[in-house]
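Repro:
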Amino acid sequence: MPAIQLENINFGYTSKEKVLYDINLEVEQGSIYGFLGANGAGKTTTMRLILGLLKANEGRITVLGKDIKDSYPNHYNHIGSLIENSSLYAHLSAKDNLRIWCDYFDVTTSRIDEVLEIVDLSHVGKKKTEAFSTGMKQRLGLAIALLHDPEILLLDEPTNGLDPMGIRDLRNLLRRLRDDGKTIILSSHILHEVERIVTQLGIIKDGRVVFQGSIDELKELRQQDVQVDIEVKDVPKTLKILGDQYVSIVQDELITLTLDHADTLPKLLRSLVEGGIDVYEFSPKRKNLEDMFLSIAKH
């Protein structure tokens, strides 16, 4: 049973303004699901739909197997969320903020020290949250989301405003929460911030999901559409050997080829050498994961 499943979700803020088109997502229990896309692609809207803050025009959303239309508002018991910025009382301490949220969630205040320990804020004491750094505010927001001990965490751009150390600390914290059995969905517009921790990945572009799979599957795509620069003296003879099976661009003695897959590279080089071509340069150019993300989102 998936932790969260979206089936054929369509949504528009008005009848003339559709922003999500046939969204299908499946988040496995115990996974860290990275939901990636450019700003304005539809990430936050999708998360608001999962929470029930917005209502889909079409389609079905289930949380732990139950349709949120039937389980609302009880599905909130299973989800903790940090959407955009946390609503914090700046003049209050972390503990006082959490005491207010304990009333909202109907949990005992004994939970406060537990969640502050989890997010490494036990040391802040009576310090007012207005004096907190961005990273501390994000961790306090996460503590609020954890107060009622939900099975699922929904985090919208949790690394926004964090410095590299803050991003690293957040990654480590999310790994610990996953190891404790939490399912985590986090959105981002920057792949390299989340690729080290996600087990699943969804990419959204202009309201449409254009990729869903594992990091390994994204890496497999990386092997495709490889370019290679080849420097030779005898360009005409080289082009004759290559034939019309490759798309080529010629600049002086440099030939740039586009290949379908990286596995073609050894065969290509062997055919040139066996054909008597003196190869002075043979430089493959594979896309990194960030390039793949941008390429997928672009198309």
